[in-house]
Amino acid sequence: MQQTFASSGTGPGIARDAVAALADEPLDRRFKAAPPDSHPDRRPGAATRGRTVREWLAGGPTLSSFGTPLLTLDGAALAHNVRTMADWCAKAGVALAPHGKTTMAPALWQAQLDAGAHGITLANLPQVRVARAFGVQRILLANTLLDPAGLAWLADELAADPDFAFLSWVDSAESVRLMDAALRAAGAERKVEVLVELGGPGGRTGARGEDAAVEVAAAVLRAPTLRLAGVGGYEGALAHDASAAGLATVRGYLRALAGLHGRLARAYPDDAPPVVTAGGSAYFDLVAEETTGLPDALVVLRSGAYVAHDDGFYRGVSPLARADGVAPFRSALHGWARVVSRPEPQLALLDAGKRDLPFDEGLPEPQRVRGGAELTGTAARIGALNDQHAFLRDAGDLAPIGAVLRLGVSHPCTAFDKWTAIPVLDSADAAEPKVTGLVRTFF
């Protein structure tokens, strides 16, 4: 039987040999994190290559092997977050298809799948193609795919691999018509599974209201190339904090999503459970609460940022930070930057900026001087970022010229995309952290 996204199958797949082969990739100037000792410094065009990741790691590098600016991952925190989320989902009785666009790192996807994730969520076709290159067998595209060339590629991919399960969204009769026309033109052999996306006022995509969504479902049922597989949406576009008003807005939306599922119950095919999916990393607890007891549904969370967590937005809004008696996620992301100028007594310039660190959900926070003072709890703060500089204010003599600072960052989704390779440390809190791995990203 050909796989559907909700099929139990033999478990989600990823090509472990392809992930392992990343350790045999030579290090060179493509990777701005790669320190000079990892590859020869030769003239342009010289026929030479750097050491492979595996060879370089065998030398026992430490954090001191790297220059600045730098972004690192804390291996212990990563393992804690993956395990904590897997345990939480198992206890709540929901499945998890973590949003892979957060990291675009096959090695981290593998860790999440190994911990029990149902599949991997992605946001666009280029990301899906990366996942397929690494053998991911169950993919949820949290978007509508209308590109005819992309749909032709998808049709071929589905025809070539009966074990490949793919699911995407539609939110209008017109998007259904365009998908169906493109798939027919491509000679699609397998139906493409789709979810009817429910939106909300002021939100992002998604049919506005249950009645409009029901009309979209009717269009799907008339399209010979599509299969109605359930309903989905994104609550995170409707609130941005954990205030009472924000949580109430999210609950109202999730109840409407559950109501839409109920209205479509008789329309679903009976060869697999319908999928009900929502849940970023901010309100996944509410998703579980509001979908408990939905008949015959596979509830799928799509949280992605939890794997690295942060020292900003998600630290404040995460459900595990709001719950009592639960071990919270730990920030696995840290920036490292050097003081290169101190033109004023209470102003220092660091060598990391917008090209290196996220800034869309809050500026980095200074945490400590490497080998020196603690900055958390002091007046020290990052007041602004330029392309390649950070403005450190009110640190004074705690951050002299040449000092290296550890920075907490906010919003993993715009941190990973700035680095093609990210060192993994045994512990970012150690006096001299050891490098245990190098996470490769594919943005």
CATH topology type of the domain at 78-309:
TIM Barrel
Question: Strand portion, in percent?
Answer: 15-25%
- Shape type: globular
- Rounded mean pLDDT is 94
Secondary structure: number of strands? 17
In the CATH scheme, the class of the domain at 78-309 would be Alpha Beta
Strands, helices and their partners?
Elements: H1 16-20, H2 53-58, E1 70-74, H3 75-92, E2 95-96, H4 106-114, E3 120-122, H5 125-133, E4 138-141, H6 148-160, E5 165-170, H7 173-185, E6 192-197, H8 210-222, E7 226-232, H9 244-263, E8 275-278, H10 284-291, E9 298-301, H11 313-317, H12 319-322, E10 333-344, E11 347-350, E12 365-369, E13 381-385, E14 390-393, E15 404-408, E16 421-425, E17 435-440
Parallel strand pairs: 1-16, 2-9, 3-4, 4-5, 5-6, 6-7, 7-8, 8-9
Antiparallel strand pairs: 1-10, 10-11, 10-15, 11-14, 12-15, 13-14, 16-17
Helix pairs in contact: 6-7, 9-10
Task: Provide the descriptors you would attach to this structure in a database record.
TIM Barrel, eight-stranded parallel beta sheet, alpha/beta, globular, 28% helix, 443 residues, nine-stranded mixed beta sheet, single chain
